[in-house]
Specification:
By secondary structure, the chain is mostly helical. The protein has two domains: 1-145; 146-258, no CATH class. The chain has helices at 12-27, 32-54, 60-91, 94-99, 101-115, 122-133, 136-142, 147-176, 184-205, 210-228, 236-256. It starts with 11 loop residues before the first helix and ends with a helix.
Length: 258
């Protein structure tokens, strides 16, 4: 009997995958290669859970009870991933194929992190966010979007997810009054302030990046407000919805500036 569904359990990672992917699809044309890159990214994300079970990352009990189903799920997902990934690489322009190496490098870097059970550390979470965010690049470029704006959009999402991750950890530290990540109480609001200033400067200085500069502001303002309000972990649901609204605003601004 399975102890849990064979899907990734870290709910925040769904936003870190889907929002950049949808942005990438919106920045370019919705063609075959772009769609295949997007499907491949989703399949790669889903593959991570059976791999985590089979390698014991989810614990010995899950591996014992779910190994057979995890192997079947892995074979199916990996087989389809090879087909969709191959189709994307064959049909995509050279720029998109080159860009696909960025999230692939992130996956390679995550392997030892995952095997050591360090995914849920701050460093592991930030590496996951960077890897998932980078999937925007091949999708957008396969659809004909330009390198410059695609890279700017990916960086905006990365900044947003870094701020969200550090803010959540800072809330946990503040709520318990101690913790190894006590430094997040200073770093998170400082980075939010820097992001606000940088976003305004970019918007006012580089006209073609005006919307990308503005797109940094929703998450930066939201996280800074959360820190100034000294939100407690009991209010995490409210924090979550605030971050969702900020993410949606970021997506709308990025797509509007394409």
């Amino acid at each position: 009997m399975a102890t849990s569904p064979l899907v990734p359990r870290e709910h925040g990672t769904y936003a870190e995958l889907l929002l950049p992917l949808l942005t990438g699809l919106a920045l370019g044309r919705l063609g075959f290669a772009a769609s295949m890159f997007a499907v491949s990214a989703v399949l790669g994300f889903l593959v991570s859970e059976p791999v985590a079970v089979l390698t014991g990352v989810r614990g010995t009990r899950d591996r014992r009870l779910m190994a057979a189903e995890a192997r079947r799920r892995l074979v199916v997902l990996a087989s389809v991933l090879v087909l969709t990934g191959g189709a994307a690489v064959v049909t995509a322009p050279a720029a998109a194929r080159l860009a696909a190496l960025v999230p692939l490098a992130g996956v390679v870097a995550l392997i030892p992190v995952g095997l050591r059970g360090r995914i849920k550390t701050i460093g592991g979470e930030l590496l996951v966010a960077a890897t998932l965010t980078a999937t925007l690049l091949p999708v957008a470029l396969a659809g004909g979007a330009g390198w410059s704006y695609s890279l700017a959009a990916a960086l905006v999402w990365l900044v947003s997810f870094v701020l969200a991750t550090l803010t959540v950890h800072a809330i946990k530290v503040r709520s318990v009054g101690s913790g190894e990540a006590h430094w997040t109480l200073v770093l998170a609001p400082t980075l939010a302030g820097v992001a606000i200033a940088a976003g305004v400067v970019v918007a006012l200085t580089w006209g073609w990046l005006f919307m990308a500069g503005l797109a940094v502001l929703p998450m930066a303002v939201a996280t800074l407000a959360i820190h100034l309000a000294r939100v407690h972990a009991r209010q995490m649901r409210t924090v979550g919805w605030s971050l969702v609204v900020a993410n949606l605003a970021t997506a709308a601004l990025l797509v509007a500036g394409r």
